[in-house]
Every structure is written in C-alpha cells, then in structure tokens.
Amino acid sequence: MHAFSGQKLEQIPAHVPPELVYDYDSSRDPRMLEDPHARMRSLLLEAPPIFFSPHNGGHWFVTRKQAIVDITMNPEVYSNSLFHAAESPAGEGEHAAPQPGFLMLPISTDPPQHTAYRAPLNQPLAAKSVAALETAIRTMTNELIDNVLDAGRCNFLSDIAEPLPVTLFMQLAGMPTNRLAEFRALATQATSATVDHATREQIFKRIAGILTESIKLRQEKREDDLISRLLDANIHGRKPTFQEMLGYSITLFLGGLDTVVNALSFGVRHLARDQALQAKLRADPSLLPGAVEELLRLYGVACPPRRVTRDVVLHGVQLKQGDALLLLLPAANYDDAAFPNPEQFTLGRTEQHMTFNAGPHRCVGLNLARLEMKVFYQEWLKRIPPFRLDPQAPPRFTGGFNLAVTSLPLVWA
Ligand code: HEM
User: How far apart are CA 27 and CA 92, in angstroms?
Assistant: First the structure.
C-alpha cells in the first residue's frame, strides 16, 4: 500500500486491487506543479495504464490512447450525463468546475440526446464558417502585440493568452465589445487558480447575467452571430428554451477559454526554449499549421471525466457502476504504442492526437482553436524578435481539471 500524505482521503473501494492504486493528486502533486507534461510522461512509466487514486473524492485515471478511444466510443457505459459541474471529480481542486445550476450543453448529455444538442453547433463552427473570423483574430492579435512589442518583454499569459480567446468569444457570440474590459476581468477571475469556490460561483453568476442579457437582446432581434443561430435551432422539433441557451453559451465560453489560453501558453513556452524551431518557422510560415498540430499533441490540456453506468471490465480492470474516470488526454499523447518517439517534436505526424479527444464529444470548437493558434503564431513570429523565457522569472504551472500555466514571462532583444 502507498502512504498518502496530507489530506483526508476517500476509502479505497473493495473492487480496487492494491496494485492498481497509485498516489497521484492532480491538484497538488509537486511534480505536476513543476512541469505538468513531464509529470504526464512519468505517469506512463510509473503508474498502471488504468489506476485509481483516492485523492479528491477518489477516481480512476486512464492514460493510454486506445483505452480512452474505447471509452469515448461507448457512451452508454461511460457517460457524460451524470456529470453536472457540481459533482466533477476534481470538485475539491483549485480547478474545480463552476456550479451553474443548469445543464452544460451539449457536453453534459449522452447520445442520442447529445446528437440533437450538438447538431446546431456543427455548421457554425465548421472550418469554412470560422474562416470568416480570421481577419478579426489577426487584428486582435496585432493589437495585443502592439501593447508589448517595444517593452522587449511581457507576461505572455496575462498580456496575450488570456485576452485573445475572451475577445474572440465575444465576437463569435455577438457580445458588445464596449463590455470587453469587464468581461475579460470576469473571465480571468473565473479561470484563475487562486480564486476560492464561493468567489468563483459569484463570478459565474455575473457571467451568466451578462450572457442572459445577450440572449434576451437576440431574442428580440437576431444578428449574424452564434447566439442568434442557436435561438433558431431545431432541437427535438422545437426551439431551445432559455435555460438551454444559457447552457450552450456557458459551455462555449468555458470550452474556448481556459483550453486556448493554456494550449497557446504551453506552445509558446516550447518555442521560447527552442530557438532553432523559432527560426525555422519564421523562415517558412507554411510549416505553421503542422507545427500547431504538433504543439497541440505535445501539450494537451483537458482531462475530461466520465461516469461508469454499469459494472464493466475495461482493458482487464474491473470497474463498478458509479465509478468516476478522468481521461488523461495529455498523457495519452505520449503513449508510444500510438505515437513513435512521442517526446520528440515531429512535423508531419499522421496519427490523430488526443488533445481534442475522440468520439461524439470530440471538441466541436477545434477548427476555431486551430485557426486562433495559427493566426496567432503567424503574427507573433513575424513581429516579435527571437524570444526566450525570462531567466529571472521561470514559468509557473498548476494542475487540476486542466493542465494550466499561471505565469509565463518572456523576453526578447
Ligand atoms: C486548444 C483549445 C481546445 C481544447 C484543447 C479543447 C478540448 C476539448 C475536449 C478534450 C473536448 C471533449 C470533452 C469530452 O470528451 O467530454 C472538448 C469539447 C468541447 N469543446 Fe473544446 N477545446 C478547445 C477549444 C474550444 C473552443 C475554441 C471552443 C468554442 C468554440 C470549444 C468548445 C467545445 C464544446 C462546446 C465542447 C463540447 C462538445 C460536445 O460535447 O459535443 N472548444 N473540447
């Protein structure tokens, strides 16, 4: 048996054999805080492929690509629907999800209900549709670069990575840009690792309040934006209710926020430590889409949960109805059964990485995420001279539901 240090732990259930118990606290693990992706790689070497950790309520972790694909392709057994934000397995961690008190759509539903809820998002978020946002993304990126260029330094997280996706979400949802500063501040607080649970709840109430106003305005008068299109969507032969609209808006907001912030920040940290790669991408920007994809693979961020609906054996491990699983997508990207030389940055890989997951819930915003990242790197590498980590202030990280960067000071000549 492992000796678990520190806090109160759940009892290890009788069906969990001792050899599958591994001491891993995603929120407080010191190695996680030092370098989250190095910790993911160490889990592949040190922990069983499916292991149980009693921290934060006690749940299973899955680290290999094939097992995760099998889980996501079988939503009848591995359900999203039992996860309302309030009972997330990371519920006690700093990255606990908010408790909005309504169904997060479409993510908290299972097929066939999920299919109906997801359908209205597919077309507006398809590659062709989001291409219309390219100019706006480029303009926003350049405005943010203008603010830091001459200083020769920035905190990438707060100066660039946080503002960009919030601004873009507001544009996508058709929210008034005169409320940008207010919404940006709320968004930053909402996803901050240092905000306590009660404050976070208050912040989410205020965000829901602002989204409510936007939905009401669009109810009165449609515009050319996502909220207007969702209002006219057909779900089970009717239009979405107000609560459903709120469920969509919050999920889109959250889905596109923390994830993009962290994917961008980890990617930029990689480039800051690899001057040769920076030079290569500056010299040939046509390599950027491939580089974005490989940075996404190396730096997965989301670890989505599932709940087991009936007793089942998964890759030789007995699971019981009600068990909670966390899919460690960032670890699965280093699974050498799926990715040759997984630790290497390699352009032109053909295997699908797991950062956006697989199965029916595979990220519906992935085209937008890729576009944001591609345009960002194009402009950043064009305008910012060779940059590196600030030797006086190393980056800081945190674990929890998502793998996250909390500070990323950069310098350039
Ligand atoms: C690099 C950035 C992003 C990453 C790493 C990411 C990751 C993910 C993952 C892993 C899932 C699957 C969750 C599950 O299996 O339960 C997901 C779903 C989702 N994402 Fe993203 N995401 C990103 C960007 C975005 C953006 C920009 C949007 C907004 C347009 C978005 C909206 C959503 C939505 C609405 C879902 C739920 C889909 C469903 O349940 O069918 N994501 N995302």
Answer: 9
- The Cα–Cα gap between 141 and 143 comes to 5
Q: How many CB atoms sit inside 10 A of residue 99's CB? A: 17
Q: Which of 329, 335, 266, 264 is nearest to 302 (CA)?
A: 329
Q: Quick one: average pLDDT of 39-59?
A: 95
Kindly give the distance from the C-alpha atom of residue 234 to the centroid of ligand 1, in angstroms, as a whole number. 22
End-to-end CA distance of the chain: 53
Q: What are the phi and psi torsion angles at 159 (to 5°)? A: -80, -35
Residue having the nearest C-alpha atom to atom 20 of ligand 1: 363
Percent of the chain with pLDDT over 70: 92
Q: Which residues line the pocket of ligand 1, CB cutoff 6 A?
A: 80, 106-107, 118, 125, 251-252, 255-256, 259-260, 263, 301-302, 304, 329, 355-357, 361, 363-365, 368-369
pLDDT, one tens digit per residue, over 277-300 is 999 999 999 999 999 999 999 999
* Cα(246)–Cα(325) distance, integer angstroms: 27
Q: Which long-range contacts (CB under 8 A, 24 or more apart) does 66-70 make?
A: 66/315, 66/335, 66/337, 66/338, 67/314, 67/315, 68/327, 68/328, 68/329, 68/332, 68/354, 68/357, 68/358, 69/358, 69/359, 70/314, 70/315
Is the predicted pLDDT of residue 94 greater than 90, yes or no?
no
Q: How far is the CA of 256 from the centre of ligand 1 (A)?
A: 7
Nearest-CA residue for ligand 1 atom 16 is 304
Domains of the chain, first to last: 18-412 (1.10.630.10)
Residue 331: closest CA among 10, 6, 125, 29: 29
Mutate to test the pocket of ligand 1, among 125, 258, 259 (most ligand atoms within 8 A of CB): 259
**What does pLDDT average to over the chain?**
90
pLDDT band at 1 (very low <50, low <70, confident <90, very high): very low
- Segment 169-190 shows an average pLDDT of 82
Indicate the SS3 state at residue 131: helix
What is the residue with the minimal CA distance to atom 30 of ligand 1?
A: 365
To test the pocket of ligand 1, the residue of 252, 262, 292, 363 to mutate (highest count of ligand atoms within 8 Å of its CB) is 363
